Every structure is written in C-alpha cells, then in structure tokens.
C-alpha cells in the first residue's frame, strides 16, 4: 500500500488491512506497528479509522459483537509465542469484530464517515495585527501572536462561537436569537451585542468591557457579570473585577503600547507574548518597579531605550531579540 493513497476510506476498504484486523497475529501486528513508526504523520488517519470502528460498534447489538470477539480471542490465544505486550490490542480487535458483523449485514462504510465541521482560523504573526469582519458583520481586531477560530457555517449555527488564543477586540453585532460566545482556556465570554477586549495568554486572562453587557463563565460554574468600564482579571487562581482604564487597555488597536503604572514584569510578559523576545532580569527586585510609557507598537525597541534613559536600567542586547536587564 503506497502512503500517498492512504485515506480513512481506502484503509478501511483495503483487503489486507481488513484481514489483519479480522485475523490478527503477531506478524501482522508488528507490520502495522512498524508502519506507524515510519509514518507518524498518518496517526490521524488511524485515529479516524478507530473512531469509525467505534461508530460501527455502537450500531450493532452487543451479543453479536461478543460472539465474534470470542471467536477472535480464542484464535489469538491459540497462537504460540503471543507476547503479553499485545494485550493492548484486544479492545481494538473487539471493535474489528464489529466491522466483520456489519459487513456481513451489508451496511456501507461511508455513511459513518461524517466529517467534522469545517473551521476558519485567522492567525497573526509576532509583532503584527489583523482585522476581520465575520459574516454577521461582527468586527474582530487581532493583536500580535493571536488567533481566532470559528465555524464556516457561522450564520446557520444556533450559537455564534469563537475560540480565542491571545488578544482580540470584538464589536459584536446584536442578535438576541443567536448568542455570541468567545471560548478561552480560562472560561467563556457570553454576549449579545457588545464591544469588548479579551486576552488569554499563559495563565493570564483579561476582559475589558467598553459597551453593552457580558458574562464571564468560568470552569467551576462561577459566573461574573461585567458592566461597561469594568475589567475582569485572572492571574493563576486570583480573580479580580475592577474599574478599567479603557484608553490604556485598548490602545494597542491604534498602534500604541501604553503602560500606566505597569510593573516591569508585566512589560516583559507583553513583549515576550507579542514580539517573541527573550528577556532575562538579573536583579529580580526590578520586576516590581512601576513604569509609565507610551511608544508605537511598530517600534517596541523604543520602550527599552526609555527604560534605560528614564529609569536608569542597564539593558544589554545579547543577540537579536534576546535581552538582559541588570
């Protein structure tokens, strides 16, 4: 079997593959183990094939499957020198018995190959921004090193869902019959018609509401209602709701890096997240120093110069995008 021709369907239809599944032995198991090692990028195909088998198994009475499984298991146990390490394949072979029963019943394979919903992904590079308009006219501005993912069937979905990594500004088109949810690794942001800024990077989560109303829904079923001008912050396990400095927190959309009473540690994290810089601090006491600064987002190096001149920091560039603060 040539690798370039392998698909989920072709693999399921291949007589040799079917024979190996239905009549397993130590030799053909080793063949497929070797094939997986040689072509690790094809693991997804095997995973989908296994998922297909699970679907097939779910459509057949357990008694029928068990009968076929017992026959296969008895055959395996009769093989001399069968390694104890192959026990991990037993459940898989049980599902293979389901494939045999289904083929006997004359049920086709393709009916179970329902594709997953197609998704659109928009990703920004380090130090770059992008803006998109969704099909419902919702506006999204992505900050550097960020991404959003959403369904191609956006207008037909009951819920408008977006998966966010990084930072984005949203101007959501109001539609009371079709809620809008932004999913992040920390929790969900549920809105109807709202303008807000959301950021999820590492263990830090930040939502700033400009207009409308949102509810932040966390993993532990905790819900936080947010009003215009408020900010919800999550650092590790610490959750804070406070008044927000809207101009400073949303200035990145206008090409500015604005820091108001920000710690050096916060500044470093932002430069690392948005520009991919590697910044080390020799004197950890400097991390808590507070800084006020405004520089163009296209010239972040000016920020380091400002720290040197205004705050008397000693900053050394070790190599491109690698800095040491002393």
Short structural description:
It is built from nine helices and 18 strands.
Based on the model shown, name its key terms:
single chain, 326 residues, alpha+beta, Jelly Rolls, Phage tail protein beta-alpha-beta fold, 3 domains, 18 strands
Task: Set out the fold topology.
Elements: H1 8-13, H2 15-22, H3 26-38, H4 43-58, H5 62-78, H6 90-105, E1 119-123, E2 130-133, E3 139-142, E4 147-151, E5 160-171, E6 180-183, E7 187-191, E8 195-201, E9 204-211, E10 214-218, E11 223-226, E12 230-235, E13 238-243, H7 246-249, E14 256-263, H8 264-275, E15 278-281, E16 290-296, H9 301-311, E17 315-319, E18 322-325
Parallel strand pairs: 5-6, 15-18
Antiparallel strand pairs: 1-4, 2-3, 3-5, 4-5, 5-8, 6-7, 7-10, 8-9, 9-12, 10-11, 12-13, 14-16, 17-18
Q: Which structural category do the helix and sheet elements fall into?
A: alpha+beta
Q: Can you tell me the residue ranges where pLDDT is under 50 for at least 5 consecutive residues?
A: 53-66, 79-91, 100-115
The number of distinct structural domains comes to: 3
On the 0-100 scale, what is the average pLDDT? 77
Strand content: 25-35%
Count of distinct strands: 18
Tally of alpha and pi helices: 9
Q: Estimate percent helicity.
A: 25-40%
- Span of the ends, CA to CA: 60 Å
CATH architecture of the largest domain: Sandwich
């Amino acid at each position: 079997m040539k690798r370039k021709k392998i698909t989920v369907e072709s693999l399921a239809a291949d007589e040799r593959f079917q024979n190996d599944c239905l009549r397993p032995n130590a030799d053909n198991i080793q063949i497929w183990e070797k094939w997986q090692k040689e072509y690790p990028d094809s693991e997804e195909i095997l995973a989908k094939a296994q998922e297909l088998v699970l679907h097939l198994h779910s459509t057949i009475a357990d008694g029928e499957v068990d009968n076929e499984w017992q026959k296969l298991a008895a055959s395996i146990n009769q093989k001399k020198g069968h390694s104890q390490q192959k026990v991990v394949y037993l459940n898989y072979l049980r599902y293979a018995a389901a494939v045999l029963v289904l083929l006997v019943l004359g049920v086709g394979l393709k009916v179970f190959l329902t594709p997953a919903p197609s998704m659109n992904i928009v990703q920004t590079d380090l130090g770059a921004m992008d803006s998109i308009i969704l099909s419902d006219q919702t506006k999204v501005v992505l900050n550097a090193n960020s991404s959003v993912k959403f369904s191609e069937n956006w207008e037909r979905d009951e819920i408008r869902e977006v998966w966010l990594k990084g930072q984005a500004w949203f101007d959501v088109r109001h539609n009371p019959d079709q809620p809008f949810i932004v999913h992040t690794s920390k929790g969900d942001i549920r809105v109807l018609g709202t303008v807000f800024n959301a950021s999820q990077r590492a263990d830090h989560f930040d939502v700033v509401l400009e207009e409308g109303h949102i509810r932040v829904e966390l993993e532990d079923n905790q819900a936080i209602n947010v009003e215009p001008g408020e900010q919800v912050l999550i650092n590790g396990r610490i959750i804070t709701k406070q008044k927000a400095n809207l101009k400073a927190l949303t200035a990145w959309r206008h090409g500015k890096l604005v820091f108001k009473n920000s710690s050096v540690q916060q500044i470093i994290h932002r430069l690392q997240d948005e520009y991919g810089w590697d910044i080390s601090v020799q004197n950890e006491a400097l991390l808590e120093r507070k800084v006020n600064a405004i520089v163009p987002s296209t010239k972040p190096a000016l920020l380091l110069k400002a720290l040197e001149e205004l705050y008397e920091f000693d900053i050394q560039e070790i190599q491109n995008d690698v800095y040491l603060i002393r």
